[in-house]
Amino acid sequence: MTNEDVPRGPSWRGVLPGLGGMVLLGSTVAVIGATHHLPSFAVQSARYAVAALGIVAVARCLRVRLVPPRGRELVWVVAGALSGLVLFNLAVVLGTRHTEPGVFGAAVACVPIVLAVAGPMARGGRPPARLVAGAVVVSVGAVAVAGWSRADIPGVLLAASLPVCEAAFTLFGARVVGRLGAWSYSAATCGVAAASFLVLSVVVERPDPAGFADPAVLLAVGYLGLLGTAVAFVLWFTCVRRVGAGVAGLTAGIAAPSTALCGFAFGAPLPSAGAWLGMGLIAAGLAVGLAPARRAAARHPVDAP
């Protein structure tokens, strides 16, 4: 396990940005319904354009220095955007023809396991057993919250690609977020995704801009772009920068409870008993995965960067 994958300072403080980012990401399900009647690629292009512009605007207001990617960093930025944003959403769009949403939720719930193993290995380390064990418990709990639905073979394959895409987005970012920072990497990847989906929309969908004039749509796209993407991504990669991709992956399981609880707040049925049990498992998995770091920090206190 490398230093990048060990929380520096109190571990719960280190993962708080990741927890906040996943809560915002999960909350997007409650508002995305307002855009279902619009071409999906056009919506995604608008979402990521709003996110990129929002990050730049807020960074200037807060005097956060944005660092442009250079050299090989451009490769990681483009690879992160294409894998974690473009291919991920393409898999969802295609997968909806073969499966029900619960399968996607269950698939994304496996992200903590993928990052717990791949995060340390990408830095030349070995996955810590307790971190992997915590990730497994978190993922099992997230699957219980998300549920499972029917799917055919193409649907299962497309769903299986989702945690790979999500993990790639984070792992590519982990290679450059040290110099670029969470703000710059998030803005750059959102910009690439916005341009990619714009091309796809123009070629495939040929959308009518008038469809975006509805105030409900504008509010939904604004929320998706600013809070569900811009703020969520900055928080997530702040967490990755602080504690490493492997440890940050534990927080990904929070997206499922956030989706369920936000849905209930907007009129969906109360989560089932199995979902509440799953939430308890997620909390237990976080405790298991972060426990060693907390003991190590108690013996060798290190200030968080």
From TrEMBL:
<dbReference type="Pfam" id="PF00892">
    <property type="entry name" value="EamA"/>
</dbReference>
<feature type="transmembrane region" description="Helical">
    <location>
        <begin position="273"/>
        <end position="291"/>
    </location>
</feature>
<comment type="similarity">
    <text>Belongs to the EamA transporter family.</text>
</comment>
<feature type="transmembrane region" description="Helical">
    <location>
        <begin position="131"/>
        <end position="149"/>
    </location>
</feature>
<feature type="transmembrane region" description="Helical">
    <location>
        <begin position="45"/>
        <end position="62"/>
    </location>
</feature>
<keyword id="KW-1133">Transmembrane helix</keyword>
<feature type="transmembrane region" description="Helical">
    <location>
        <begin position="12"/>
        <end position="33"/>
    </location>
</feature>
<feature type="transmembrane region" description="Helical">
    <location>
        <begin position="216"/>
        <end position="238"/>
    </location>
</feature>
<feature type="transmembrane region" description="Helical">
    <location>
        <begin position="185"/>
        <end position="204"/>
    </location>
</feature>
<keyword id="KW-0472">Membrane</keyword>
<keyword id="KW-0812">Transmembrane</keyword>
<dbReference type="InterPro" id="IPR037185">
    <property type="entry name" value="EmrE-like"/>
</dbReference>
<feature type="domain" description="EamA">
    <location>
        <begin position="154"/>
        <end position="288"/>
    </location>
</feature>
<dbReference type="InterPro" id="IPR000620">
    <property type="entry name" value="EamA_dom"/>
</dbReference>
<feature type="transmembrane region" description="Helical">
    <location>
        <begin position="102"/>
        <end position="119"/>
    </location>
</feature>
<feature type="transmembrane region" description="Helical">
    <location>
        <begin position="245"/>
        <end position="267"/>
    </location>
</feature>
<feature type="transmembrane region" description="Helical">
    <location>
        <begin position="155"/>
        <end position="173"/>
    </location>
</feature>
<feature type="transmembrane region" description="Helical">
    <location>
        <begin position="74"/>
        <end position="96"/>
    </location>
</feature>
<protein>
    <submittedName>
        <fullName>Permease of the drug/metabolite transporter (DMT) superfamily</fullName>
    </submittedName>
</protein>
